[in-house]
């Protein structure tokens, strides 16, 4: 199994908007994809900003390619997310899950 990690930041005022976007749009869309195995949205507040860490679990890199394209290192960031995030990573990082 593979974990895909991506980070974005929002102002404290926009954090609830991003949480809602992830819950109402991102999660349902990716949950419908073959090979999707679950996700977490983590957050940390610091210096008036909220950092989000999205961790999605996939059956394989091939499953991620079906979602993200051949270059799985490129982040998939919806325009609605861009509108509420103050900044975000343009890449995603992948780890093999070796024990759970």
Explain the overall architecture.
This protein has a single domain (2-96), classed as Alpha-Beta Plaits (2-Layer Sandwich), CATH 3.30.70. The protein contains three helices and five strands, in the order βαββααββ. The protein has helices spanning 15-31, 61-68, 79-84, and strands spanning 2-11, 36-46, 49-58, 87-88, 93-96. Strands 1, 2, 3, 4 and 5 form a five-stranded antiparallel beta sheet that branches. Strand 2 and strand 3 (49-58) form a beta hairpin. The longest helix has 17 residues, at 15-31. It starts with a strand and ends with a strand. The model has no long low-confidence stretch (mean pLDDT 96).
Question: How would you summarize what this structure contains?
Answer:
By secondary structure, the protein is an alpha+beta fold.
């Amino acid at each position: 199994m593979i974990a895909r990690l991506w980070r974005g930041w929002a102002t404290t005022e926009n954090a609830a908007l991003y949480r809602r976007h992830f819950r109402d749009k991102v999660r349902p869309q990716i949950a419908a994809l073959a090979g999707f195995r679950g996700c977490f949205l983590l957050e940390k507040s610091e210096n008036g900003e909220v950092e989000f860490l999205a961790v999605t679990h996939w059956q394989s890199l091939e499953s991620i390619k079906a979602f993200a394209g051949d270059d799985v290192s490129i982040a998939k960031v919806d325009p609605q997310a861009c509108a509420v995030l103050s900044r975000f990573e343009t890449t995603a990082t992948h780890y093999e899950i070796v024990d759970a």
